């Protein structure tokens, strides 16, 4: 048995970790744009990266380290993805870390992560200015969370305190960013998770894989997969506490909360919708349907228009390539039945009830394929005019 409690803030509650965010002029109006996270001691590292074949320089740099390496420092910048910059982009990271060692000599196997515009080399001069501005003893998770934002309309962070019934408490804290270029093909955002749990390396990989699969990998805003998607889990063991089941559940709760915050903050989004699939032939087929629905532009625009057009749902299911049959299919918006074999036409009463549900900021579209026992839930949002406005002038 164990208890899990949310705490206000995020990284500042996790023992042995420090963080800060500062402005060096990458963003306008003096907003924070460079951040760090460091640990008093070396941390084990577990990571999941984008499936995009054009992986950004920070990911390539990370993969140069030997397997099971440890680190004590993470540097993050906004406004520049350092993607599609070739070998020079990787060399720029090495140059920055060589400069950072003059300010922070304890640096070991540092990691860099970047977000922003693709195709431009880092402004090394500006980013290097952050090294003299950082307070390396700070626990400024608010500043760090704001520094990594791009088109985000709000910061995204969470800390959970885990109290095993007969053990030492431990913490998991995280900051993340994401609002656009979000597709369920690994994260499509940046997320940095730290824990003071005495986490075994093998358990870390298992827990992170499970958590990502049911959170970030189940989230979609616009169906586009970034070059920089990263989820990092750093564990320093400083609490001395650990419980395998408690940690796995807490990490899953943490990542699901942050994934839903990303979808809720989808560029111009007004709706957060869960696509809950049951009765599929297999769980893999359920996942295929759920992700097809969360990515469909026709479905997304129907959500924006608050139009209970179940035909778009059914069409997307049929086009997904899974085993399905219109005689066994059932579609509900929350608890309102909009389609099954005996009620194929949406009468006025049910349409009014479904339309009322679609006016809510969040709801569930449940699709029972009636074929087998496979289940999966994906999360998506609507797509409206503001998305086009934001992305039409993204570089500005």
UniProtKB/TrEMBL annotation:
Keywords: Acyltransferase, Amino-acid biosynthesis, Arginine biosynthesis, Autocatalytic cleavage, Cytoplasm, Multifunctional enzyme, Transferase. Its main location: cytoplasm. It catalyses: N(2)-acetyl-L-ornithine + L-glutamate = N-acetyl-L-glutamate + L-ornithine; L-glutamate + acetyl-CoA = N-acetyl-L-glutamate + CoA + H(+). InterPro entries: Arg_biosynth_ArgJ, ArgJ-like_dom_sf, ArgJ_beta_C. Its EC number is 2.3.1.35, 2.3.1.1. Substrate binds at residues 150, 177, 188, 267, 391, 396. The record marks 187-188 as: Cleavage. This is Arginine biosynthesis bifunctional protein ArgJ. The gene is argJ.
């Amino acid at each position: 048995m164990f208890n899990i409690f949310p705490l206000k803030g995020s990284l500042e509650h996790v023992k042995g970790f420090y963080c800060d965010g500062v402005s060096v002029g990458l963003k306008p109006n003096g907003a924070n744009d460079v951040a760090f996270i460091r640990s008093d001691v070396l941390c084990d590292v577990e990571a999941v990266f984008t499936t995009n074949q054009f992986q950004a320089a920070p990911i390539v740099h990370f993969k140069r380290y030997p397997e099971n390496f440890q680190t004590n420092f993470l540097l993050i910048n906004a406004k520049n993805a350092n993607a599609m910059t070739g070998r020079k982009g990787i060399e720029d990271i090495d140059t920055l870390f060589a400069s950072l060692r003059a300010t922070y000599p304890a640096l070991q196997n540092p990691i860099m992560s970047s977000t922003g515009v693709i195709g431009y080399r880092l402004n090394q001069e500006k980013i290097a200015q952050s090294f003299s501005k950082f307070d390396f003893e700070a626990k400024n998770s608010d500043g760090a969370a704001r520094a990594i934002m791009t088109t985000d309309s709000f910061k995204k962070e969470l800390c959970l305190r885990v109290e095993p019934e007969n053990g030492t408490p431990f913490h998991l804290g995280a900051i993340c960013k994401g609002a656009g270029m979000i597709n369920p093909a690994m994260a499509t955002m940046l997320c940095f998770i730290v824990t003071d749990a005495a986490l075994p390396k093998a358990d870390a990989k298992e827990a992170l894989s499970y958590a990502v699969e049911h959170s970030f990998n189940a989230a979609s805003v616009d169906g586009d997969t970034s070059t920089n998607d990263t989820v990092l889990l750093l564990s320093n063991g400083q609490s001395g506490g650990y419980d395998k089941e408690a940690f796995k559940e807490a990490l899953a709760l943490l990542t699901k909360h942050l994934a839903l915050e990303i979808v809720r903050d989808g560029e111009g989004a007004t709706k957060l919708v869960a696509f809950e699939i049951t009765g599929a032939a297999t769980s893999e087929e359920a996942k295929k349907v759920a992700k097809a629905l969360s990515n469909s532009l026709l479905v997304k625009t129907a959500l924006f228009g608050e139009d209970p057009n179940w035909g778009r749902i059914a069409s997307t299911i049929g086009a997904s390539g899974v085993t399905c049959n219109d005689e066994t299919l059932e579609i509900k918006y929350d608890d309102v039945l909009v389609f099954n074999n005996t009620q194929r036409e949406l009468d006025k009463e049910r349409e009014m009830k479904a339309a009322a549900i679609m006016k809510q900021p969040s709801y569930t579209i449940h699709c029972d394929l009636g074929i087998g026992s496979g289940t999966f839930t994906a999360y998506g949002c609507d797509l409206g005019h503001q998305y086009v406005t934001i992305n039409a002038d993204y570089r500005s």
